[in-house]
C-alpha cells in the first residue's frame, strides 16, 4: 500500500550545491544577456550613465569630506574634555593625599597625648593592640611578593590579541594576602595600603582598589611575620599557581625575604552601630483567651 501524499512531491536541490554550481545571481545573467543583445549604450544614454556615475562619486566624496571635517572639528573638544577630567582627577587625588597627611599628623599627635596620659604598661598594651588591628605602623622582618602583568600577547597567525590570562586581577591579590595570612603573617600591606579585618580588595572596571584606593602595577605585597613564612608561602597552592602562570602566560611573580620592613598604619575605620530610639516604647503581646 502506498501513501498518496507522496505523489507529486518535489525535492529542491541542496542549497550549497546549487550555490557552487550557479554562483552568479540570475539578475546579473539577465543584464549580461540584454547588454550582449543591445550593445554598449551610445548617444544620450551613454552620456546619462556617465553623468549619473559622476554625480554619485561627487556626492559620496562630499559626504566623506563633511564627515572628516566634522570629526576634526570635534576632536579638540573631546581632547579638551578628556584633559579636563584628567586634571580634575589629579586635583582630587592631590587633595586626598593632603588630607591623608593631615589625618596622619593628627593621629600622631593624639597618640602622643594619649601616651602622656597613660602609664607605660597601659600605653604599651594599647600600642600592641593597635598594631594587631592594623591601626599603627609596625616594623620587622618579613616577605615581599611582587606581581606584574604579562606582556601583551599577539597571535602570530591572525595578529589578534590573545586572551589576557596573564593580567593580575583583584582575586589574585586576595589569594596572595590569604596565603600570607595562612603562612603566619602578622601584618600585610598592598602597595603600602595596610590591610585590616575590614579591608576590601576589589575591582572597579580595569582598576584594582584596596580599601577604595586605587593601586597600580607592579603590585607589591609586603608582610611581616615569622622566619619560616617565606618557605610556607612558597609551598602554598597559591604560589604554585602563580609559578604556572609565569611559565604559561608570562606573568611576573617573585618572592623574597626582606629584613626590617616597615608597614604604614591603616586609615581609621568607619564603624557604624545602631542605637535604640528614645521615643520607642515596647508593645505588649497579647494572647487569645487571655491568661
TrEMBL record:
InterPro entries: DUF881
Keywords of the record: Coiled coil, Membrane, Transmembrane, Transmembrane helix
Lineage top rank: taxon: Bacteria
Coiled coil: 89-116
Transmembrane segments: 47-68
Segments for region (Disordered): 266-291
Biased composition (Low complexity): 275-291
Family: Belongs to the UPF0749 family.
PANTHER family xrefs: UPF0749 PROTEIN RV1823, UPF0749 PROTEIN RV1825
Identification of the protein by name: DUF881 domain-containing protein
Organism per entry: Phytohabitans kaempferiae
Biological classification of the source: Bacteria, Bacillati, Actinomycetota, Actinomycetes, Micromonosporales
Amino acid at each position: 500500500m502506498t501513501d498518496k501524499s507522496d505523489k507529486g512531491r518535489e525535492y529542491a536541490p541542496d542549497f550549497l550545491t546549487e550555490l557552487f554550481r550557479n554562483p552568479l545571481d540570475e539578475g546579473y545573467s539577465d543584464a549580461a544577456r540584454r547588454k550582449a543583445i543591445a550593445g554598449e549604450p551610445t548617444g544620450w544614454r551613454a552620456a546619462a550613465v556617465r553623468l549619473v556615475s559622476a554625480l554619485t562619486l561627487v556626492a559620496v566624496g562630499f559626504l566623506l569630506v563633511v564627515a572628516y571635517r566634522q570629526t576634526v572639528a570635534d576632536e579638540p573638544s573631546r581632547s579638551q574634555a578628556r584633559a579636563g577630567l584628567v586634571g580634575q582627577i589629579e586635583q582630587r587625588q592631590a587633595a586626598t593625599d593632603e588630607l591623608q597627611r593631615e589625618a596622619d599628623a593628627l593621629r600622631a599627635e593624639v597618640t602622643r597625648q594619649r601616651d602622656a596620659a597613660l602609664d607605660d604598661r597601659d600605653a604599651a598594651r594599647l600600642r600592641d593592640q593597635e598594631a594587631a588591628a592594623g591601626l599603627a605602623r609596625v616594623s620587622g622582618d618579613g616577605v615581599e611578593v611582587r606581581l606584574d602583568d604579562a606582556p601583551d600577547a599577539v597571535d602570530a597567525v591572525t595578529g589578534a590579541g590573545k586572551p589576557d590570562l596573564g593580567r593580575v586581577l583583584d582575586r589574585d591579590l586576595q589569594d596572595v594576602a590569604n596565603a600570607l595570612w595562612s603562612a603566619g603573617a602578622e601584618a600585610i600591606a598592598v602597595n603600602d595600603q595596610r590591610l585590616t579585618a575590614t579591608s576590601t580588595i576589589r575591582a572597579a572596571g580595569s582598576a584594582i582598589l584596596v580599601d577604595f584606593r586605587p593601586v597600580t602595577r607592579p603590585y607589591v605585597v609586603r608582610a611581616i611575620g615569622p622566619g619560616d613564612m617565606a618557605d610556607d608561602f612558597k609551598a602554598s597552592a597559591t604560589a604554585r599557581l602563580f609559578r604556572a602562570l609565569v611559565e604559561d602566560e608570562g606573568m611576573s611573580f617573585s618572592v623574597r625575604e626582606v629584613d626590617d620592613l616597615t608597614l604604614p598604619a591603616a586609615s581609621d575605620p568607619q564603624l557604624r552601630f545602631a542605637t535604640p530610639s528614645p521615643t520607642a516604647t515596647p508593645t505588649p503581646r497579647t494572647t487569645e483567651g487571655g491568661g
